[in-house]
Amino acid sequence: MSLFSFLGTLEIGFIFGLVAVGVYLTFRVLDFPDLTVDGSFTLGAALAAALILAGVNPYLATLCAMFGGAVAGLLTAWLNLRFNILHLLASILTMTALYTINLRVMGKPNLALIAEPTVLSPFESLGIPNMYMKVIFVAAVVIAVGLLLAWFLNTQYGMAMRATGANPRMAQANGIVINEKIYAGLALSNGLVALAGALFAQTNGFADSTMGIGTIVVGLAAVIVGESLLNSRSMLVIVFSCILGSLLYRLAVSVALNADFIGFTTSDLNLITAVLVGLALILPHFRREWKARKAAQGGAA
Fold first, then answer.
1. pLDDT tens digits for range 251-261
2. In 167-214, which residue ranges form alpha helices assigned H by DSSP?
3. Which of 17, 169, 188, 197 could pair covalently with 246 via S-S, beta carbons 3.0-4.6 A apart?
4. How high is the pLDDT of residue 288?
5. What distances in angstroms separate CA 199 from CA 75, 135, 194, 219, one per listed residue?
6. Chain-centre distance of CA 260, in angstroms?
């Protein structure tokens, strides 16, 4: 693997670290399986690209992209809570609608940002090569978001949100308005995913209507890999384990695609993804069995 490929892998790994954190919020914190992220990732990229091309400041465009993703999350929560639609179905409905909305936002299937200003433009005068600057900038954003999110989840409001996912009845019995926490959690989750989409579009120079396909799988894979490696009760460790899982996942995919002796090509990406996710799900099971066997042998002794 060349240095250029390695830096590109780190860049995408950090960006999808935001997706992993967003997926963790819904799947683990709120216990709300949410497939909206496949649409909100593209929505973030589409809004940022369309606004930048319209002459809007890239940072303002990125904030608008986050807001758009948050609205998508609110729509999924509203369908679920207001009309009692199953959470999976509600998120699928939103994701399906977003495909058309994204096309409307962009006006065509893809938009190019190669010659346009981006969030990286103010740092071009520093003289740092672009391939390094992109990784440094994205890593700084993701680490800052991770620290803020870990702090938030340890606040009173954040712990109430965690209680909502852990035991809704007990949370409601203790005066927590669970619907409010679900709305807030899905808005925050999809806002982070949309931020990832906006950053992806600006660092890679394009937005495409199909770029969000499979985002949920990548996010889940990162969460599962991170949890397998760092099993902790600390929210700071958990949040950064998701980011670490995303980096390791992208590195594993990159190594598999660049290993000539394996013979994989880019068309095999879905197969590689399925194998990696399967391994991430299976290995913790074997580890638990090994620990249980070891404990049984120790008790027998």
1. 988 887 776 65
2. 168-173, 178-204
3. 17
4. 78
5. 23, 11, 9, 16
6. 30
Cα–Cα distance measured from residue 144 to residue 17, given in angstroms and rounded to the nearest whole number: 12
Interacting residues of 279 by C-beta distance below 8 A, sequence separation 6+: none
- The 8-class DSSP code of residue 25 comes to I
Distance separating alpha carbons of residues 209 and 172, to the nearest angstrom: 40
Cα-Cα-Cα-Cα dihedral sign, residues 283, 289, 292, 293 = negative
The domain segmentation of the chain, as residue ranges, is 3-211
pLDDT single digits (tens) 51-102: 999 999 999 999 999 999 999 999 999 999 999 999 999 999 999 999 999 9
Task: Give the span between the Cα atoms of 193 and 216, in whole angstroms.
Answer: 10
Nearest alpha-carbon partner for 21 in 41, 45, 47: 41
What is the tens place of the pLDDT at every residue in 93-138? 999 999 999 999 999 999 999 889 999 999 988 889 999 999 999 9
β-bridge partners, 111: 207
301 pLDDT more than 70? no
Q: Is the separation of the CB atoms in 181 and 59 below 8 Å?
A: no
What residues are paired with 112 via a beta bridge?
Answer: 206
- Give pLDDT tens digits for 223-240: 988 888 888 889 999 999
Q: What is the DSSP string of 223-249?
A: HHHHHHH---S-HHHHHHHHHHHHHHH
Q: Which runs of consecutive H residues, i.e. helices, occur in 25-86?
A: 37-53, 58-83
Query: What DSSP state is assigned to residue 122?
Result: G
